[in-house]
Amino acid sequence: MCATLNSVQPNTSSGMLTGEVLKGQTLGNVDTATTLLYLPTPPIIDPQHPLDYERLCTLNGNHWRKILIILAKLQAPNQHWRTYRDQQLLKQQEAICFGDQLLDHQQLQLVAGKASWQRLGLNPQDFTAIETSGRLLQRDNIILTPYPDYRQFPNQLIDQLRPIIQAFESA
User: Fold this and answer.
1) Structural domain count, the chain
2) Are strands 137-139 and 142-145 parallel, antiparallel or unpaired?
């Protein structure tokens, strides 16, 4: 389901377990996902529980908590995004990709942030704005988005992108 992972290692100074950096290209299952989110940097994971929201947040802090909350808000089939985040996120409908090229899939591909756009060789001028602020740009099944942070990707923008994701998933 996930990419190649290293083991959890004991922290000898505290006796607590610490995670390892994700060693592969994806988090989640790209074969069952309907949406792929591309980010520049993989998280630290617990190989025994690589998709567990609480564990990802514990190992990676507030930064990854925000990313996962925004992804849950985008992907939840209804307004109950917290339940979706805790029970289903990254387990079937979505995967996060960290590679240097787009996967050759027909899924909706959300490329988050300028660093990802540049790494994947995507020029925003080749895309069309799909909302008035010009922060969401689309070409075919690829949408360029801001980086998933509350300042760059506020709820208003989430509300504008959700129906597009839902329409793509139901098509």
Assistant:
1) 1
2) antiparallel
d(CA 34, CA 126): 23
pLDDT in tens, 72-116: 999 998 889 999 999 999 998 999 999 999 998 789 999 999 999
pTM, whole model, 2 decimals?
0.86
User: CA of 142: how far to CAs of 25, 91, 120, in Å?
Assistant: 18, 21, 12
Task: Quick: pLDDT tens for 144-162.
Answer: 999 999 999 999 999 999 9
151 assigned to some structural domain: yes
Assigned token pair, 5: 């992972």
pLDDT digits (tens, 9 = 90+) for 59-69: 999 999 999 99
Token output for 23: 């060693």
* Angstrom distance (rounded) from CA 20 to CA 115: 23
Q: Which of 119, 121, 124 is nearest to 135 (CA)?
A: 124
* Pair 23, 5: CB distance under 8 Å: yes
Cα–Cα distance for residue pair 112/110, rounded to 1 Å? 6
The whole-angstrom separation of Cα 156 and Cα 67 is 16
How far is the C-alpha of 124 from the C-alpha of 118, rounded, in Å?
A: 9
Domain that holds residue 140: 20-162
